[in-house]
Amino acid sequence: MNPNPNTNDFPLLSHLLNHLDPQTHPPLPAELDQSLLTQFPHLNHPSVLSSLARHASTLNVTPTLSLLRTLRASEKKLLEAYAESVKGVVEEVSEGVVGVLKKAESEEVERVDLSGSHLRILPEAFGKIRGLVVLNLSQNQLEVIPDSIAGLQRLVELDVSSNVLESLPDSIGLLVNLKIFNVSANKLTALPESIALCRSLVELDASFNNLMCLPTNMGFGLVNLEKLLIHLNKIRFLPASIGEMKSLRHLDVHFNELHGLPQSIGKLTNLEYLNVSSNFSDMTELPETLGDLVNLRELDLSNNQIRALPYSFGRLEKLTKLNLDQNPIIVPPIEVVNQGAEAVKEFMAKWWLDLIEEAQQKSMSETQNQQAQTGWLAWGASLLNNVAEVSESVAEYFGAKKAPRDPWLDQQL
Questions:
Q1: What is the DSSP letter of 217?
Q2: DSSP labels, 329-384
Q3: Average pLDDT in the 372-385 region?
Q4: Residue 215, helix vs strand vs coil
Q5: Which residue would you say has higher pLDDT here, 206 or 54?
Q6: Closest Cα partner for 130 from 113, 146, 148?
Q7: Are 142 and 163 in contact (CB under 8 A)?
Q8: Which of 394, 291, 413, 266 is nearest to 352 (CA)?
Q9: Dihedral sign of CA atoms 247, 250, 252, 253 in order
Q10: pLDDT score recorded for residue 403
Q11: DSSP per-residue string spanning 2-48
Q12: Distance (Å, rounded) from C-alpha 213 to C-alpha 197?
């Protein structure tokens, strides 16, 4: 038995006390608080908190009982109170969902907002609301999205952020009019290959998940995508097809495990914002094609292991914001980096020109050497040929038979 109990021993009571009086009672550690909300998903519902507060006011600390026993008894009563009060919440939520479905039977429903409604299940019948344009299901406890979602052919905006989704249905690819899709703050480990069929997508937010990779052919389909947010994941490589997202303007891949960027990144000539910061020891170099991002205005490379910028960096004429903090940078020198983006671009442009000039001089020198060597060989061949011709002429002059050609001379010629 722990003689010195702390808030971790009585999470429900601690959470309630912090809600009632945050000045006096400190909050639970973030990890424990998240675990508590997962276990008790309706804990922050107003009616549940109100019910728990009423029960808390009836708790008595009896002198004849030890403090530890009293706290345990209080925690147990709060658990019972939660179970009782949550019944009403579930009924309330169910009524709300049923209300939406009934309304859709008699009239066209274009917008549905069920955010923060403590939903655990989305009825298959939602796929029958044919006129739905905007659907907000964020901040719930949804574990799956039904396949019937494919029935929402007019859907333009879908928000399922802050749920507990571990996967998305393949039928998501049938939402051909979807333009904005927010699936951030879930538990996804992958996106379905069918996401590439959502060709109308303009904005995709899949940040704060457990993504390990992106679909291989994703870029070939999402040619209209302008904003891609995939930060706070575990992605190691971006697919080469990302270079086909010719409309992309904003790309955020910070806090991943990227080992680099594909050469095809240079094809994103409309890109204005790129954040590849905080990939730490995994990110060590950048492709030369980075210099092809002619419209890039803001670039964050902080918290990586980059030692040198690519030779082409000086071509980023529109770049105005550059963050290279926390890198073992050597090229350009740190004193240049500290002067800002313009100084870095100027240094890299000059360095590039110097390298070109050096390469040209080396090439000229090699050409001259080659010409000199070629000239000597030509002179030698001509000399040997003349010797052979003179030999034949002398023999003919003295009336002798034509002398046989010398095999050695033939070989040299």
A1: T
A2: --BS-HHHHTT-HHHHHHHHHHHHHHHHHHHHHHHHHHHHHHHHHHHHHHHHHHHH
A3: 56
A4: coil
A5: 206
A6: 148
A7: yes
A8: 291
A9: positive
A10: 44
A11: -SS--GGGSHHHHHHHHHH-TTTSPPPPHHHHHHHHHHSTTTT-HHH
A12: 18
Residues near 50 by beta carbon (within 8 Å), at least 6 away in sequence: none
Question: Which domains, ranges and CATH numbers included, belong to the chain?
Answer: 7-89 (no CATH), 108-354 (3.80.10.10), 363-409 (no CATH)
Cα–Cα distance between 181 and 196 in angstroms, integer? 13
Tokens 């939660």, residue located: 82
For the chain, how many helices (H) and strands (E)? 8, 10
Q: Which residues of 171-184 are buried (b: 16+ CB within 10 A; e: fewer)?
A: bbbbbeebbbbbbb
Residue 376 — pLDDT band, cuts 50, 70, 90? low
Only one residue has tokens 């095999």, namely 407
Comparing 283 with 183, the larger pLDDT belongs to: 183
Q: Which of 342, 268, 311 is nearest to 253 (CA)?
A: 268
| Pair 182, 205: CB distance under 8 Å | yes
Instruction: Please tell me whether residue 229 adopts helix, strand or coil conformation.
Output: strand
Asked if residue 303 lies in contact with residue 278, where contact means CB atoms within 8 angstroms, the answer is yes
| Rounded distance between C-alpha atoms, residue 180 and residue 176, angstroms | 11
| Spatial contact of 73 and 103, defined as CB atoms under 8 Å apart | no
HSE (side-chain half, CA atoms, 13 Å) at 408: 1
pLDDT tens digits along 145-179: 999 999 999 999 999 999 999 999 999 999 999 99
pLDDT averaged over the chain?
Answer: 81
- Are 250 and 228 in contact by the 8 Å Cβ rule? The answer is yes
Q: Rounded to the nearest 10 degrees, how much is the dihedral formed by the CA atoms of 66, 68, 73, 76?
A: -170
246: tokens are 């010719």
What gap in Å lies between CA 168 and CA 183, rounded to an integer?
9
Q: Is the pTM of this model over 0.85?
A: no
Work out the percent of the chain whose per-residue pLDDT is above 70.
Answer: 66
User: Tokens representing 109?
Assistant: 């429903």
